[in-house]
Q: What sequence folds into this?
């Protein structure tokens, strides 16, 4: 069987203390990468233990990705500690749902800053190293909400649609230097982010999903692993939708 190897690669994953980000870290270390685990929250010891068990190195870094200075520092520290950055996964994200009539300015600003400005800031800091190395991969976690829209999520959907436009533009800018930029657009995935939905809403959502269930964090992490790996070496500017068929 052909296995995916990231042997010798250095990966930075934001929002990686739990949920989809944590699952991405676990896939990456199993494939042989060393990881920078960046999050606003503390990085749990059991995640660091998982990395160790695979014989890989983890560098936990506390960052607020909505702050450009923090993003610059994240990439600078990665370069100082590991000497390079091969893979950047912009995964950190938040929701502040409300119908537009009731959506206050701070809910708009917070979601756009964490979900979209962070992608600009981390990518800008990372690409100068990737372009110099003539190699690198950026994977941005969007959402089907950015493709289909979702009532109550004008801010979130705008940020996630923005991530797609950003990724395609950057993919065009850096392709000549062998740097690839892609998006993964998850549908409804079981995580803390979707735990808050009430049971009736969850049932209504499942009824819209041809595969008949919420996705698991590993469903997204495996898609990210593929895009990060040499198996996707001819893939750039793509949006890989992983949603159980919901948006087709
Ligand atoms: N769960 C889903 O159904 C779903 C669907 C589509 C897209 N997504 C996207 O996937 C990504 C991960 O979502 P999840 O479901 O794992 O959510 P989650 O809430 O479980 O995890 C998000 C992580 O981001 C971190 N984070 C939040 N703000 C941050 C900041 N300012 N700086 C640094 N870290 C910060 C949190 O501490 C947390 O660890 C998000 O971008 C989300 O929008 C999730």
A:
């Amino acid at each position: 069987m052909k296995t995916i190897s990231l042997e010798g690669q250095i990966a930075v994953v934001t929002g990686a203390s739990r949920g989809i980000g944590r699952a991405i870290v676990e896939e990456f270390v199993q494939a042989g990468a060393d990881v920078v685990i960046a999050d606003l929250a503390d990085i749990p010891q059991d995640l660091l233990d998982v990395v160790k068990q695979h014989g890989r190195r983890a560098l936990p870094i506390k960052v607020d990705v909505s702050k450009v200075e923090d993003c610059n520092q994240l990439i600078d520290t990665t370069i100082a500690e590991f000497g390079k950055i091969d893979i950047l996964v912009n995964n950190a994200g938040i929701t502040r749902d409300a119908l537009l009539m009731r959506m206050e300015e701070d809910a708009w600003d917070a979601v756009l800053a964490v979900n979209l400005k962070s992608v600009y800031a981390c990518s800008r800091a990372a690409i100068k190293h990737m372009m110099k190395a003539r190699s690198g991969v950026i994977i941005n976690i969007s959402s089907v909400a950015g493709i289909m829209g979702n009532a109550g999520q004008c801010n979130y959907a705008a940020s996630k649609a923005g991530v797609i436009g950003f990724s395609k533009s950057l993919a065009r800018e850096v392709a000549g230097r062998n740097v690839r930029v892609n998006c993964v657009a998850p549908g409804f995935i079981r995580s803390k982010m979707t735990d808050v939905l009430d049971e009736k809403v969850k049932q209504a959502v499942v009824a819209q999903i041809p595969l008949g269930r919420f996705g698991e964090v590993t469903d997204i992490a495996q898609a990210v692993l593929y895009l990060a790996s040499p198996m996707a070496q001819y893939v750039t500017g793509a949006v890989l939708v992983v949603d159980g068929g919901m948006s087709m």
Remarks:
- The CA atoms of residues 182 and 227 lie 7 Å apart.
- Residues 105-133 form the longest helix (29 residues).
- The chain has one domain: 10-238.
- The domain at 10-238 is CATH 3.40.50.720 (Rossmann fold).
